[in-house]
Amino acid sequence: MGETTVVSCKVHGNDPKTPGEIRIYTDQDAGRYYFKNTEDNLVLHMDVFHEPASLDPVYVARRVWQGIEIYFNKLREENNFEYSKDEITALLKDFTQKIVLRTSGGKGNVFDLASRRVKLIPEKARKPETHVHLLFCLEPQYYDSIIFIADAVEQAIMNQGFEIRRVDKIVHSEKEAEITPGLGLGLGLPGFNSPEAQEQRYRQNRFQIIMNLAGAFGSVEDAAGFLESLSTAGNIFLGSFAKKHGDGDLKQTLLDLSNAGLVVKRRFAFILTEEGKALHEFMRNHQKELEAQVRKSIRRYQIVRHNYKTYRNTRLKSRKSQITDHKKVTDLSERAWLSDIAIPETLVNASARSYLEGRPHLTIDKKDIKVFGKKSFAPIDTCIAIDCSGSMVGEKIRAVSFLAEHFLLTSQEKVGIVAFQEMNARVVVPFTKSYQKLQEGLRTIQPEGLTPLAKGIVLSIEVIKKKRARNPLLVLITDGIPNFPLWTTDAQKDALTAARMIAENKIRLVCIGTLPNEDYMKELASVGQGNLYVVDELDKNSLVDVVTQEWEQYKYSK
Predict the structure, then answer these.
(1) Which of 9, 57, 224, 308 could form a disulfide with 103 if both were Cys (CB 3.0 to 4.6 A apart)?
(2) What confidence tens digit (pLDDT) does each residue in 423-460 have?
(3) Across 3-7, 8-12, 73-77, 212-216, least confident range
(4) Taking the C-alpha atoms of 418, 397, 239 and 429 in order, what is their torsion angle to the nearest 10 degrees?
């Protein structure tokens, strides 16, 4: 189906040596093989192929969910579907529970994956795969939904920065019998085993490893620094990396590099192999180009909207300014003398009038003048206050860093970072539009210690007031409750007092917390007249989703 997808009621196979050739085993029913069914042809098996990659199954599942919603909406538009909205919601839930999905990140039915009810494989333990695997237990009347699902999976693959892979040929055979060609697609893409193709696969794998390291350590420079620490036997100090990335994550990274043949473990330390040294040298020599690729992938990150438990308290609207709209040209009015004159349009208008009036020379009258129009613009300066206590180590702090980078690169407005930990808070990144300054500040974060929430709020307010932030938005991210006081001996009471100062200074507040701290964060958001989002996990998708929603609501509020 299409160019990337194979669908049948049978088991599929794929030889890595011939990635474009897909085998369908005619004697292996998918339902019997995967679900131990007693009858044939009850299960549809779909594989959507892509370059070797580790895909996030939650993201893919949510895109599939959206594809199914589009499918049902199409049915309603064509008047072939006489269900109410509530009935469709119930049907959608039942439908998504009958589709099993698997990537290298984990497996489960679409409903459970999209709702994060499935335990995923740790990111460092995932091994690249070449296809997204789906099984359908649907009534035949809904088989046409697979067109929408296949499209959703393809979009999920590309939105995560990977390429879909064309199916070159289909062959049919019995599992143990000699392969006999089926009808296939017959298009042919020769050269998969040529030296050029092998070199291309090597480059793709190397690039994938570099992107994974950059994601794990925050930047290409930090990833190269990590490899630098492995370059000399006996001269290794990984404590600083473990503080930020977690000891378990660090060990998994070393294991992955070892499995890839890039490092080898000696008696007292891990050291780079010759291939690892070549990778390190490549990263140093092409750092600028690789950093550009990382920025591109961050910008292209596609958000999957999800429903969160929310508590809304704010009524604060953005204050808009008038700026010149160069796409809109109007006549000059009595009140528009100081407006920007649209010179080309004015000259064209004057030329036409002068010609029609038979004038020998071009003259410009007041009535010829055209001016640019105005449009409303609400600049929003965002301060992100981060809980950098010990519980945020690893994936959580990486997700927060990704949020800051994504937000700065896509909104092109000022972003500031305040970190609170131990017994104090500090400005990690002053308000800036510079991606380099943002990265330099994020690189200094090392989660550890307590949660001085009150101090973090107070410092954030001071930074916003000092810089005279425009339409300030304060994003507060924490996975716990305050446990270090500021004014009294009660840390939670002090944080509530600080939250009142947010409302008093007319700063829009959005809190992002997890289920265990829901009750306290609900009270804090209420006192600060802000909005609270309770998320399952502080991962990059939930953070980017929430902050983007709040930013858009604030920017375009009326």
Answers:
(1) 57
(2) 899 999 999 999 889 989 998 888 888 899 999 999 99
(3) 73-77
(4) -30
Cβ–Cβ < 8 Å for 509, 476 = yes
Which one, of 132, 72, 145, lies nearest residue 101 by Cα?
132
Backbone phi, psi, residue 50, to 5°: -150, 170
Ranges for all domains in the chain classified under CATH 3.40.50.410: 309-314+379-555
Which residues are within 8 A (CB) of 358 and not within 5 positions of it... i.e. 6 or more apart? none
pLDDT digits over 67-106, tens only?
998 888 877 776 656 677 777 788 888 899 999 999 989 9
What φ, ψ does residue 175 adopt, rounded to 5°?
Answer: -55, -45
CA distances, 95 to each of 61, 65, 135, 219 (Å): 13, 9, 12, 40
Q: What percent of the chain has pLDDT over 90?
A: 30
CA–CA gap between residue 489 and residue 70 (Å, rounded):
54
Residues 412, 210, 154, 2: is their CA dihedral positive or negative?
positive
pTM to 2 decimal places: 0.62
> Class of 309-314+379-555 per CATH?
alpha beta
H or E element that contains 71: helix 57-77
| 3-class SS of residue 213 | helix
Question: CATH assignment of 195-299?
Answer: 1.10.10
pLDDT digits over 104-119, tens only? 899 999 999 998 888 8
- Whether residue 46 has pLDDT greater than 90: yes
Nearest to 454 by CA among 464, 444, 462: 462
Strands 415-421 and 531-535: unpaired
* Helical residues (DSSP H) of 98-246, grouped into ranges: 110-114, 145-159, 195-217, 220-229, 239-245
CA 155 to the chain's CA centroid = 13
Checking if the pLDDT of 292 tops 80, the result is: yes
Between vectors from CA 533 to CA 529 and to CA 535, what angle results, nearest 5°?
A: 160
Cβ burial 498-536 (10 Å sphere, 16+ → b, else e): bbebbbeeebbbbbbbbeebeebbbbbbebbbbbbbbbe
The upper half-sphere exposure of residue 94, i.e. CA atoms within 13 Å in the direction of its Cβ, equals 10
